[in-house]
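REQUEST FORM: STRUCTURE PREDICTION
Request ID: SP-0412
Submitted by: Lab K.M.
Chain count: 1
Length (residues): 204
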Amino acid sequence: MTIKHSFDDVVRPAPSWALRLRPGRWPGFAVAAWGFLFSVPSFVWALGGTFGAQSAVAPSLVKLADDRVTWFLAVLWVTGFLKLFGALVGIGLTRRRGKRTGRLMVFCGGGATVLLVWHGCLFVAHGVLVEAGARAVAPDLVGLTRWYLYLWGPWFIAGGLAFAAAATHYVRRHDGRRELRLYGSVGALGALVLSLASLVTGIG
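STATUS: Completed
RESULT:
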């Protein structure tokens, strides 16, 4: 009894869905999921719903949303769309793009990495100091501090690391790596300057 195997039986091309989801593209899809999920609370709160915000978000921000303050609602809408734009950047980093688009994607990826990791680390550091008793907060804000320590801080950091991985994979898969790295570095530096300015001025 003989068993014959054709070449196609031994080496079969990967299905199209497998190519779309190959390991190098996962960071970009992770960014897209992160941005989409993170945009939902912004739009919900902008539309008048504050479910979950009372315990997980600063009371002053919840009051602005409840009072339907115009400028704050505008901020919610803008931040919601910025998060959706971040999701689009993640998708853009999953495959080869044109030269200009690729530069923009890597620039945004570098900037988002620094902004998100910076804010996430600030949230975590503040929470750790409060938990350790090195920094005092009002008793009614202790629970809120833990939300920022265990949820928002890690969530921001995770998003930043996803952006970093997506931009890095994009650069590695394309020609002109030096130029793309330059755009990513400029984006990261700009975000760092903005973050330092917000820390010094107390804005943001």
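NOTES: Residues 26-201 form one domain.
Reviewed by: T.R.
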